[in-house]
Amino acid sequence: MLEEILPEAVIDVPDIGPYQRFNRPPLVVRVNAYGQPITIITAHLKSKRAFFLRDKNGSLLEDMDDPNIRVRAKLRSLCMRAAEAASIRMSIIERLQHTHEPLILLGDMNDVTGSVTTQLMAETGEVNYDKSMRDIALFDAARIQSRYSWMRDVAYTHIYQGMPEVIDQLFVSEEFLPDSKFSLGQVERVDYFNDHLKWDYADRVIDHGIIRAKIKLNS
Fold first, then answer.
1. Is residue 2 part of a domain?
2. Smaller CB count within 10 Å for the chain: N or C?
3. Residue 210 — left, alpha, or beta (φ > 0 → left; ψ -120 to 50 → alpha)?
């Protein structure tokens, strides 16, 4: 479990100070799949919801209706999410660099796949400029699946202010790219279970969809 934000990723949150501990500590497990070790990291980053200051009893210290204060409160949330993403990224690099053991990152990233904080963890785009980055980059399972890739364009896992979006994601390391010389398997398909998000809010058991990936290891 990752409880402490790595020192290199600690930043000062406005009006709060250094953000040094995960709000929801990521779980890190190393499993053995048919003789192949795989590291799995689950993440649930700080939400985009504005973080207003409160006293020790939980009472608000700020005017939630003041638009300028709302901006500052959302900035706090962004800083927290960025620090968590950066710390997770550094942990991923430590586990991937100069190794050929696969890694899977999954969970509620609380932002879309192409967002700054999500890409801070994955750094997928850097591969376009430097192929050696494949060693430590992560790849969106929905984008590299070998079947039903069209599903990525109709998928969503959350509805925010009436708009569907994918904020629950699953990323894999280079070892699950079929065209990699270090390939140990591939993502065959990714499924999204989200029909319950169409129900009335009060009837929902959970307000997020579920993402599932089928990964086939090479024989």
1. no
2. C
3. beta
